[in-house]
Amino acid sequence: MRILFCNYEYPPLGGGGGVINAMVAEELARDHYVGVVTSQAADLPRYQVLENVHVLRVPVLGRSQQAVASFPSMASFIPQAMRLGLPWARQQHFDILNTHFVLPTGPAGQYLANHLDIPNVLFVHGGDLYDPSKRMSPHRHWILRLVIRHLLGKAAHVIGQSNNTLDNLARFYRDDVATTLIPLAIREPPKAATTRADHDLAAEDFVLITVGRLIPRKAIDQLVGIIASLGDPRIKLLVIGSGPLAEPLSAQAAAAGIADQVRFAGQVGEEEKFDLLALADAYVSTSQHEGFGIVFLEAMASGLPVICYGHGGQTDFLVDGRTGFLPSLNEQDAFAARVRELASDPKLVQGMADFNRKLARDFYIDRCAARHLAVFEKVLAERRQA
Prior knowledge:
Elements: E1 2-7, H1 16-28, E2 33-40, E3 47-50, E4 53-59, H2 71-92, E5 96-100, H3 106-116, E6 120-124, H4 142-154, E7 157-160, H5 163-172, E8 179-181, E9 206-211, H6 220-230, E10 235-240, H7 246-255, E11 262-266, H8 270-279, E12 282-285, H9 294-301, E13 306-308, E14 324-325, H10 332-343, H11 346-360, H12 365-385
Parallel strand pairs: 1-2, 1-5, 2-4, 5-6, 6-7, 7-8, 9-10, 9-12, 10-11, 12-13, 13-14
Antiparallel strand pairs: 3-4
């Protein structure tokens, strides 16, 4: 099969949506011809082959950060992908297109599918349908809802990564499209190549870790406030990620007198990320919404209990009291109590860690890619029969 992906973000640009796209693409490229149309930024090359995946990057406006896309970069990707992606894709003779994110990628993906005369399988990631932290979330605006309804109707099939995402699709947009639930996936974590001493952490410290872009939806200011409220100097918080709130969050920690307990590692590579996860005792997140939350699986595979709010796509695989704890949304006192409980009970931590390692194996990338391929084969078979 010759498979084309279209995604406005693809590593090293962007977050989890690009990462999962790359992992699926690389896994499928073991046996199939795989191409990607995505954004070009900074000094990234226009075209390259990565892990046997043929990547075409089209230049966009205003992409100054790897982690966070600007509105001009998202808007300009659409015409650039149409203009530059189409002639390249025509030369490759693709059989099927998989578009990631109904907005902003969807219009470009559907245009390519129409002009290449191939079916378009649309992958919705959650935040492209519903993000309660954003005033411009598509579900709040009737014009965007109409655009999304149109794109959903044009797609040959729709994949969602969680029940929460598919529920929001039916609730806010339309319930008459063919959908398949395919959970996101991870690779098996590498063995740690570093120690706590390398990072000036003591054996007796209880280390919490969180990974994500430093943006309002992640609500990391709540985590900083929770650390301050606990009043326990041995509880440390390691924050991995970059974004526009880096300086305000650092200032908040300093003002609360816990600058030595909250450490900002910034953007790190995959190997270093897993090294740091392996050093921690528990994964924490106060995110206001996740369509799925792939980093929860990475933490579980690294042997960490997870404490996060019981709201969002991660509730498909997180179980309160087994994988960690799921306090209600924005119940920060309950969240702090659960952190204190784990910090005082090593046996509880170990039991949850063992359970999570075993559960995470069901979400390794080979199974995820096989599920994608099954959808592609089904769509192509239906097209041949039509």
